[in-house]
Amino acid sequence: MSGEDFREEAVLAAVKPLKAANSTPNMGEAASFGEVPGTESAPLAESGTLEGLFEQHHHRIFRTAHRLTGRAADAEDVLQTVFLRLARGQESPGIGTNPEAYFTRAAINASLDLLRSRKRANAVAMDDVENSAWLAEPQFESGAGGLLSTIDDYFSFCRMMLNKGRHGRDQILSRAAVELMTSDQLTAQQRVGSELFFGDFSSWGFGMAVDIGRKNIYHSPGRFGWTGGFGTTAYTDPANGLIGILFTQRMMDSPEPPKVFTDFWTLAYGAME
């Protein structure tokens, strides 16, 4: 068996538990991957093993791919593709200097390759009734995605966040927790390589996106919320006392928001002036 075959089998062995159970892969079940290709046989302590890189960065790759593709199964395929390409030496320049940016870009490239290969139309139905992904009860191994809500329930959540964690007579979250969740938690260096998501006007708090600058009429510093690949957008703007929620049944087919999203927010903010 060649070294390339060995590395590829190790990658497949690592990703298989994730595809089978939609849970975090057990890297202890996979053999050591050996040196990262393209590093001129650098020592493992310097270049890192594929096993270590997988353990550190597979969540980042999965989240990025899930947001682009809109499907967990597609995100799993992208995760496998990224590490297979790395094992084969197809991609590796720049990984040593900034692995976070490298893996974000690799996930974006692999996701776009997947979408192009399927030649999806601009408007793709998110789900179908007979084979719906929501027919079975979710396992909820991760709170990072796959959750469901109605507009009314999500509006209650947004009002609670706008009121600094208070809903009616109950303090659901502390004011400090809300302020942490809705403030920028990334450094400028950590945003490098993710301009496709952040541009120069957005960043991440805890569990949501946060506007840190103004690009369009609806980008207001301090505004927080999320735009999801399943066709949803919801933001809360404390400075203007505004909550906006738009739930559609059309998956996004690009990291760029669809026109219905930008029209919705443009009209909402235009109505206030």
What is the topology?
Layout: H1 3-21, H2 44-47, H3 50-69, H4 72-88, H5 99-118, E1 124-125, H6 151-162, E2 166-167, E3 170-171, H7 175-181, H8 188-191, H9 195-198, E4 202-204, E5 209-211, E6 224-228, E7 232-237, E8 242-247, E9 250-251, H10 259-270
Q: What does this 3D model show about the protein?
A:
With 273 residues, the chain is of the alpha+beta class. It folds into two domains: 3-118, no CATH class; 151-270, DD-peptidase/beta-lactamase superfamily (Beta-lactamase, 3-Layer(aba) Sandwich). Helices cover 44% and strands 11% of the residues. The protein is built from ten helices and nine strands. The strands form three sheets. A five-stranded antiparallel beta sheet has the order 4-5-6-7-8, with helices on both faces. Strands 1-9 form a two-stranded antiparallel sheet. It has a two-stranded antiparallel sheet with strand order 2-3. β7 and β8 form a beta hairpin. The protein is globular, with a radius of gyration of 20 Å. The termini are far apart. Residues 18-47 have low confidence and may be disordered.
